[in-house]
Amino acid sequence: MTREEARKKAEALVSQMTVEEKASQLRFDAPAIERLGVPEYNWWNEALHGLARGGTATSFPQAIGMAAMFDDELLEKIADAISTEARAKYNALSSEGDRDIYHGLTMWSPNINIFRDPRWGRGHETYGEDPYLTSRLGKAFVRGLQGKGDSLKTAACAKHFAVHSGPEALRHSFNAVASPKDLEETYLPAFQALVQEAGVEAVMGAYNRTNGEPCCASNYLMNKLRKEWGFEGHFVSDCWAIRDFHENHKVTSAPVESVTKALKAGCDLNCGCTYQHIMHAYELGMISEEDISRCAVRLFTTRFLLGILGEDGSEYDSIPYTAIECKEHLSLAHRAALLSCVLLKNNELLPLNPESCGTLGVIGPNTNSRVPLIGNYHGTSSRYITVLEGIQDLVGDQCDILYSEGCALSSDRVEPLAKANDRIAEALAVAKNSDTVLLVLGLDETLEGEEGDTGNSYFSGDKDNLLLPETQRILMEKVLAVGKPTVVILMAGSSIDLTAAQEKADAVLLTWYPGACGGKAVAELLFGKHSPSGKLPLTFYTNEALAEMPDFTDYSMRNRTYRYYTGKALYPFGYGLTYGDCSVESLSATKTDAAVTVVNTGCNDTDEVLELYLRDEKSPDAPPHPVLCGFRRIHLRAGERAVISVPIDPRAFTIVNQEGFRIPGSGTWTLYAGFGAPDSRTEELTGKKSQSVILTD
């Protein structure tokens, strides 16, 4: 069914409704209209890295981990698997009369906000700090969710529009001030790409104001969306964001005014309860029936495109319930976990050999916990494999394993009646009686996440600094001081200061939140069944770097992210090691693509990510550092040499001036190709230098 056909059906259906019935359909929990054969429908569902909050589903790595794969083709397959499970669940549950929240086909994913500040608690829901990478991955995720058939498989939603990345504690009242340049260069490109190139069906407005206007009723943002970009889908508010108009932003004084402001601006659907005041606003003459009808038509157009209204049905109606957590999807989740982990340091300790590594000491609060496997916005898995369980399953009886929790995740003791640091002595006993130590540290969704979903001291979801909790810092210091060969394994979704591990540990592996069975993948990487190949989609800073950055509430990109940061990163954007030894030998390019000769002189087969960066050499408005403009995941066998073709993003040859206009670049650019960014820190960590070539008009 084409959009035009769906829209006509929607117009015909809405024309038969009373104004009260139309108004009722603009709530996320839309009631049935039995006389017209319209079943109830709950618009609220989540699919960030698997179906969330609605029961059993395949658990994929958290979004930031999937970004570290630098693989849009695989991400599209993952999103397709998620939409298959959504259809399977919808088909089965709706046949039982269950149309509850989290069981519908409108997925409020992906989160394509830019992870501009490392303190932001929800950054791990995003695809990182780079607009181009976020655009590429966001488009892939939308295409996978929405499918390639005549009707929508599910409806994706680009969120949170726009200029939204903390602080969480202030989001209901905060005004994000962004310059025209930063808007066009950083905050809006991914949304534009998802609308114009992926046809995303829905856009969700953010809680905050942007340059003075609440995002769910911003004339500037709505004009961008509908008139400039040609968006034809529906717009949904973030949950209870319209209530913020009068309660927190103070741009209105009462619910009827907030309803009027949002509805007239073009917010079609209310997640929350404020649209219960629509009829009051209508009776006061503040909004017209035409205003209500326009929103209802957009919403019913989506429902017709999904094939869940009328007699036509959908090509996806036959997807069986057995598709949920099927072998194919579990295998896909396992592959994603393998590709997402990032090897940050390796003094040739890894990969481990279970027959020669001796007694293994596995220590740390995230070693045997399920919580850091799954991140936030997660579903329920039928099986979980922690890091400890993955190691135990893999090595079997080939070596002895000693285990200690070491410390609590963030409190100063595990047992309430014990003294502080009550597991340190046990951890040291394990370390001293081991030949090799695996120290599993980090965070989980209780320490970084969304406001109200967290258990940290600020209850805002954001981090106050980039340090591990003090109890974990004490544990790491004392275990590293034992002097045994040690691997630090970090389970977290954001930048953490690992200076001590970088200086004193023999290896550092970042696993993110790898999914319910992610412990299996982590073990396989540690023991060389596969080579790590993930790359950082964000910069890892030292904690001291925060003092060099603008305030958290300052949305200027000055000294933020790899494009503008002037300091020395702990681990740079695009960085990640492998068990191979890959390098770029030569590069030739046009303004459309690059031909790159690569070689793996190491002894291990490995995946790698070939990265292209471009710097405008003459424009004063260009970012000071080369910017990602292309990437391709490849596989190189030991000793293999290959010529790889990588397309170049044409927008990379433009720049955004201070007035916010995207204009042609200077005509002279340097293109870099390597297995990391072309910066001195990457060269220092890898010992490899990117190849470069000058391009001109």
- Terminal CA distance reads 44 Å
Largest beta sheet: strand ordering: 9-14-13-12-10-11
How much strand content do the residues show? 15-25%
Mean pLDDT: 97
Q: How many structural units, i.e. domains?
A: 3
CATH class of the largest domain: Alpha Beta
Instruction: From the 3D structure, determine the CATH topology of the largest domain.
Output: TIM Barrel
Provide structural commentary.
The chain is α/β, with parallel strands linked by helices and 697 residues long. It has three domains: 3-323, Glycoside hydrolase, family 3, N-terminal domain (TIM Barrel), CATH 3.20.20; 341-538, Rossmann fold (3-Layer(aba) Sandwich); 582-696, Immunoglobulin-like. Helices cover 30% and strands 16% of the residues. The strands form seven sheets. It has a six-stranded mixed sheet, with helices on both faces. Helix 4 (72-95) runs antiparallel to helix 13 (327-340), helix 5 (131-146) packs parallel to helix 7 and helix 13 crosses helix 19 (518-526).
